[in-house]
Write a structure and sequence with these properties.
Blueprint (H helix, E strand, L loop, with lengths): L6 H24 L3 H29 L7 H31 L3 H32 L3 H8 L12
Length: 158
């Protein structure tokens, strides 16, 4: 795998993020201030997300992953396209709103939202352009590997 990355490291990171998320969740539940509460709860959710992502890397490195079927690939692409469009709208709205606000406390929250929206947009584009395409095996790819790319063209080797 290289670079000192390992299943154990990703598993440990997943556990740490989960513990961190639980601590922030408890803090957020204690705080009555609505903005602080929301920030702590949001960061807690991000840490839970990170825990899930680290856990997915453990699974990815520990076992063979199934390829996406044509139906799954189509559903992923269609849904991701909708979300990419939505994220672009949310980025525009957050930027426009941020430009109108003078209160530094509101600017702080709007900036955090805008940063998340920009990051979500980038991740969704990358999922569509990189991850989903790599994990997709079309029926044509499958038949080509059996017939065209095989020295025996689908017959028993010999």
């Amino acid at each position: 795998m290289g670079s000192g990355l390992s299943v154990e490291m990703f598993s440990d990171m997943s556990d740490k993020e989960k513990i961190y998320a639980e601590a922030l969740l408890k803090l957020g539940e204690k705080v009555k201030h609505p903005v602080l509460r929301a920030v702590f709860l949001a960061i807690s959710q991000d840490s839970l997300k990170h825990s899930l992502l680290y856990r997915s890397l453990v699974e990815f490195l520990s076992s063979v992953q199934p390829a996406l079927t044509q139906e799954e690939y189509k559903a992923v692409i269609e849904e991701v396209d909708k979300h990419i469009e939505t994220e672009a709208q949310m980025i525009r709205i957050a930027r426009e709103t941020l430009e109108k606000v003078d209160d530094p406390r509101i600017k702080l929250i709007l900036s955090a939202i805008l940063n998340d929206e920009v990051e979500h947009h980038k991740v969704l584009v990358d999922i569509k352009d990189k991850l989903a395409k790599i994990e997709f095996v079309s029926e044509e790819d499958l038949w080509n590997s059996i017939w065209r790319d095989s020295p025996w063209h689908g017959t028993p080797g010999g």
